[in-house]
Design brief:
about 210 residues, alpha/beta, Arc Repressor Mutant, subunit A, Rossmann fold, 2 domains, two-stranded antiparallel ribbon
């Protein structure tokens, strides 16, 4: 465990490291410099990030990929399967079910919740759908700690409130509006529009810069 709490940026970089390590042979060795190139940071930063959690490499010899992959997985809690509760089984919800509906990785949507009577009690992509009023009972019984919100904007806050009441510890919000949760619940907003706007900003400004220098 870390000697002090690591920042969110550290966990993001570790996640990126793990992404690249998964495509490498277990017995391969990799240097902090090479990891830094892949992640887009410095070797010193990679070494500092890893030092929060222990000593995984040998000076001047680098890290053995298999062990480093295993240790980062443990740090990120990926050495087990995390069941997820999905709120909203519309088009976006179905897309999420197609991606996380089977136990192929560390995350698995275990239950769905929707107000549509045509979906309640049925299975969508193999996942049972319940009415939201059943959320506290189902989530506690199945010991689920992560929730995803794919409900319409007008239902997003109510969905978040229900997840919090049910004992959820972390929420990934895919709705088009922000939600408010207590400080003890980790909230991440997956705002596709904002990310696309960042991309268009850079495209437009790069084009303007080229025109200004032409």
């Amino acid at each position: 465990m870390p000697r002090e709490k690591a920042s969110e940026n550290v966990t993001i970089r570790l996640s990126l490291c793990l992404k690249y390590l998964r495509g490498m042979s277990e017995e391969t060795r990799i240097s902090s410099g090479r990891l830094a190139e892949l992640v887009g940071t410095s070797g010193a930063r990679v070494r500092k990030d890893l030092s929060y959690f222990g000593q995984f490499g040998t000076p001047r010899k680098g890290y053995r990929v298999g062990r480093l992959r295993e240790e980062i997985s443990k740090v990120l809690g990926l050495d087990r399967v995390w069941p997820i509760a999905l709120v909203g089984v519309g088009k976006l919800g179905r897309a999420l079910l197609n991606n996380f509906g089977s136990e192929r990785g560390s995350f698995h949507i275990q239950v769905g919740f929707d107000v549509n009577p045509n979906k309640i009690g049925k299975r969508v992509a193999g996942v049972k759908v319940y009415h939201p009023y059943q959320m506290p009972k189902i989530i506690r019984e199945q010991k689920i700690q992560i929730g995803m919100i794919a409900a319409p904007a007008e239902a997003a806050q109510e969905s978040a409130d229900l997840l919090v009441i049910s004992g959820i510890k972390g929420i990934l919000n895919f709705s088009s509006t922000r939600v408010v949760v207590p400080s003890y619940v980790k909230l991440k907003n997956a705002d596709f529009t904002s990310q696309l706007e960042v991309i268009t900003y850079y495209i437009v400004n790069n084009q303007r810069s080229k025109l200004a220098h032409s």
